Amino acid sequence: MTHMHIASWIVALILLFVSYGLYSSGSAKGAKITHMILRLFYILIILTGAELFIRFANFNGEYAGKMLLGIITIGLMEMILIRKKKEKSTGGLWIGFIIVLVLTVLLGLHLPIGFHLF
């Protein structure tokens, strides 16, 4: 299940950049399609993350923190695309997204089912 969760995140990040690029280029139809596919991946990420949380959490606060950061990351991804679609500024959201994404990945690698980098 861990591999599916990680693969879903990678595909979601790719779809985020593709959708953002399509919104930037003015291709509304293509952007809408990739945005909807991305939303399906949000659901897959949340379901696989919830399964991992239930399986490995043991009421550990780090897992709850990682889950909260992951949900915030998904929220920022959606907010970036919606603001781009409405042709509003996304600079601050990108900075927040990158910070939260890095924290989420580092915490995920630190947890017992992740890699031990530090």
Automatic annotation (TrEMBL):
Its main location: membrane. It is a multi-pass membrane protein. It comes from the Bacteria. The chain crosses the membrane at residues 6-24, 36-57, 63-81, 93-113. The keyword Signal does not apply. Keywords: Cell membrane, Membrane, Transmembrane, Transmembrane helix. The keyword Membrane applies. This is UPF0344 protein BATR1942_02995. It comes from Bacillus atrophaeus (strain 1942).
